[in-house]
Amino acid sequence: MKSKVKENLLDIIFCGGGCIIYSVAIAVFAEDNGIAHGGVTGIAMLINYLLPAIPTGVASFLLNVPLFIVAFMKIGGKFIFRSFFVSAFLSFSIDAFSFLPSYTGDRMVSAIFCGVLSGTALSLILMRNLTSGGTDILAKLIRLKNSHFSMGRLILISDFFVIVLAGIVYRNFESVMFSLIMLFVTSYIIDKILFGLTDSRTLMIITSSWQRISLAIMSEIGRGVSIINISGAYSGEQKKMLMCAVRKNEVNKIARLIPSFDKNAFTVILPSTEIIGRGFERNE
Fold it and tell me: Which pLDDT score, from 0 to 100, does residue 176 have?
């Protein structure tokens, strides 16, 4: 029971905070600078621009309602129900914070700060496995019959469409440019918050000198090494592959170390979104 209360409280804190931060981003950096958000919020901003009597939050809510009704009928579940309340509170917050003074300086600064705040806000909501509605829900509905479509790609396409539409409505190409910059910064911040703030790499090394190289990595770099048995598809030859997770600044040290033991070693360096464990982010 206590655990459930705690989870509900965290939902309220994270999602409520996210909605407020997102609303501040729109009020201070977006609306009066011609910077359009993607998705339903962006369309709502355009409606408000063309019809000032309709507040952005109200327009956003009205656009989201039919999406949630269809989603509840097709998908159902706790996720849709709870996300609807997040969307409703976000719509309320957008109008509630519209009184804040707008930043009227450099539009590039507006785009960057709007992206940072929007990315942070959406990350807080996504951390609770919820959504603010809009294109997230639309993408889920499309994937019901087209499961091969990527969620990220569907959202990106819809956001890009709205931003191009904003450029037409605002009659300003710069609005498209700054909106795309804002979208890029938002995406970057979400990735960094949700998937790790540090850059890590995974090395896969196929070598005949696996014993000496693994010992050198452990002693000189201080990283653990896993040894994996592999075989060549063409030759059928049995080999050893070393797998090692390191920080980005340690890659060059290992890359210089390997040839001193085996000049014919085959090394693959892969970006790692996040590594959890001893010596890395969460457990350091």
Answer: 87
Residue 76 CB contacts under 8 Å (≥ 6 apart), including other chains: none
Query: How do the domains of the chain map onto residue ranges?
Result: 2-195, 200-283
CATH 3.40.50.2300: does it fit domain 200-283? no
Q: Which residues of the chain have pLDDT under 70?
A: 1-2, 147-153, 195-198, 273-284
Of 252, 246, 239, give the one whose Cα is nearest residue 277.
Answer: 246
Query: What's the pTM?
Result: 0.71
Which residues, 6+ apart, have CB-to-CB distance to 3 below 8 Å? Answer: none
The pair of structure tokens assigned to 87 is: 């969307």
CB 267 within 8 A of CB 210: no
Tokens representing 274 are 């996040």
What pLDDT is stored for residue 279 in this prediction? Answer: 62
Secondary structure of residue 110 in the 3-state scheme: helix
List of residues 6+ apart from 279 with CB closer than 8 A: 222, 223, 224
Contacts of residue 216, defined as CB under 8 A and 6 or more positions apart, other chains included, come to: 257, 261
- DSSP assignment string, 190-209: HHHHHH-SS-EEEEEEE-TT
Q: Which two tokens stand for residue 84?
A: 């609807």
The bridge status of strand 238-247 relative to strand 200-206 is antiparallel
**From CA 211, how far away is CA 208, in angstroms rounded?**
8
Query: According to the model, what pLDDT value does residue 198 have?
Result: 58
**What pLDDT, on a 0 to 100 scale, did the predictor assign at position 21?**
95
